[in-house]
C-alpha cells in the first residue's frame, strides 16, 4: 500500500524568504504525485502534479516540485514566499495502476511572518 | 463549471440524530470520493465511487455510515445515529479517470463542517 510522510507539521518563514516543504512517499512502482493547498475554511486546491516525464514540475502560484526517485521524495519549493501563501499544504500519492486511490499526507501548516 | 458543490456547508446536530451530507460532482466526472478531515487523523478516504458504483468503502468507519450515488450528478453520505466523535469536516471530490485526460487529479468541494453535540 502507498503512504506519504510529511515530516514537518508546522513551518514558519519570513515573507520574501524561500520555502521548501518536504514529502516522502512509499510506493512500489512509479507513483502519481500531487501537492494540494488548503486555505482556512476552504477545500483543497491542486498546486501541481507529477505523472511522468520531466521530474521538475511547475505549478500555480509560483510553486514547483521535484520528483527524486532515488530519494522517494517530492519536495515543494517556492523562491519567495508571499503572505498569501499561508495555508496548509498536502502531499499526496496515487497508484499508477488499478483504481485511483490517492493517499494524502498529514499536511504541513505554513505560517508567513512579515 | 461551478465545481464540486456540497451542502450544507455547516451542520450542527445532537447526538443520535441522522445527518445527511450531499454532493454534486463536476459534470462529466466519473469518479467521486468522500473524505473526512480531523486534526487528529488528517484527511481520510471514506469511500470511492466509479461510474456510480462503490468500489472501495474500506474507509467507512462503521455501520452508522452509509453512502449512495443514485446517479452521476448526486451523492449522499449519511450518518445514523450520529455521535460527537463524528464531528469533522467532510469533503467530496470528483475526478475523471480512464478517458485520456489528467486522470487522478481530484477536484474538491468546499466541505461540510459537522458538529455533533
Could you explain how this protein is built, in words?
The complex is a heterodimer of chains A (about 110) and B (about 120). Chain A is mainly beta. In chain A, about 0% of the residues lie in helices and about 50% in strands. Chain A has strands at about 5, 10-15, 20, 25, 30-40, 45-50, 55-60, 65-70, 75-80, 85-95, 100-105, 110-114. In chain A, the strands form three sheets. In chain A, strands 2, 5, 6, 10, 11 and 12 form a six-stranded mixed sheet that branches. Chain A has a four-stranded antiparallel sheet with strand order 3-9-8-7, with no helix packed on it. In chain A, strands 1-4 form a two-stranded antiparallel sheet. In chain B, strands 2, 4, 5, 6, 9, 10 and 11 form a seven-stranded mixed sheet that branches. In chain B, strands 1-3-8-7 form a four-stranded antiparallel sheet, with no helix packed on it. Chain B has strands at about 5, 10-15, 20-25, 30-40, 40-50, 55, 65-70, 75-80, 90-95, 105-110, 110-115. The model of chain B has no long low-confidence stretch (mean pLDDT about 90). In chain B, a hairpin with a 2-residue loop joins strand 5 and strand 6. Chain B has about 120 residues and is mainly β. Helices cover about 0% and strands about 55% of the residues of chain B. Classes of the chains: A mainly beta (about 110), B mainly beta (about 120).
SSE map:
The complex is a heterodimer of chains A (114) and B (117).
Chain A: E1 3-5, E2 10-14, E3 19-21, E4 24-26, E5 32-38, E6 44-50, E7 56-58, E8 64-68, E9 73-78, E10 87-94, E11 102-104, E12 108-113
Chain B: E1 5-7, E2 10-13, E3 19-24, E4 31-38, E5 42-50, E6 53-56, E7 65-71, E8 74-79, E9 88-95, E10 107-108, E11 112-116
Parallel strand pairs in B: 2-11
Antiparallel strand pairs in B: 1-3, 3-8, 4-5, 4-9, 5-6, 7-8, 9-10, 9-11
Amino acid at each position: 500500500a502507498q503512504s506519504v510522510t510529511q515530516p514537518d507539521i508546522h513551518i514558519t518563514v519570513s515573507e520574501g524568504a524561500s520555502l521548501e516543504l518536504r514529502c516522502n512517499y512509499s510506493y512500489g512502482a512509479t507513483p502519481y504525485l500531487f501537492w494540494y493547498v488548503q486555505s482556512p475554511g476552504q477545500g483543497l486546491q491542486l498546486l501541481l502534479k507529477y505523472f511522468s516525464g520531466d521530474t521538475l514540475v511547475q505549478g500555480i502560484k509560483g510553486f514547483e516540485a521535484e520528483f527524486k526517485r532515488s530519494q522517494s521524495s517530492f519536495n515543494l519549493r517556492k523562491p519567495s514566499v508571499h503572505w498569501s501563501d499561508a495555508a496548509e499544504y498536502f502531499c499526496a500519492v496515487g497508484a499508477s495502476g488499478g483504481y485511483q486511490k490517492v493517499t494524502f499526507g498529514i499536511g504541513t501548516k505554513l505560517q508567513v511572518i512579515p | 463549471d461551478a465545481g464540486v458543490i456540497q451542502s450544507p456547508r455547516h451542520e450542527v446536530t445532537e447526538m443520535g440524530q441522522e445527518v445527511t451530507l450531499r454532493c454534486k460532482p463536476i459534470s462529466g466526472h466519473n469518479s467521486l470520493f468522500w473524505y473526512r478531515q480531523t486534526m487528529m487523523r488528517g484527511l481520510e478516504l471514506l469511500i470511492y465511487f466509479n461510474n456510480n458504483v462503490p468500489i472501495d468503502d474500506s474507509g467507512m468507519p462503521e455501520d452508522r455510515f452509509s453512502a449512495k450515488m443514485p446517479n452521476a450528478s448526486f451523492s449522499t453520505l449519511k450518518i445514523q445515529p450520529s455521535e460527537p466523535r463524528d464531528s469533522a469536516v467532510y469533503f467530496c471530490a470528483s475526478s475523471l479517470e480512464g478517458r485520456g485526460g489528467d486522470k487522478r487529479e481530484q477536484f474538491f468541494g468546499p466541505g461540510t463542517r459537522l458538529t455533533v453535540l
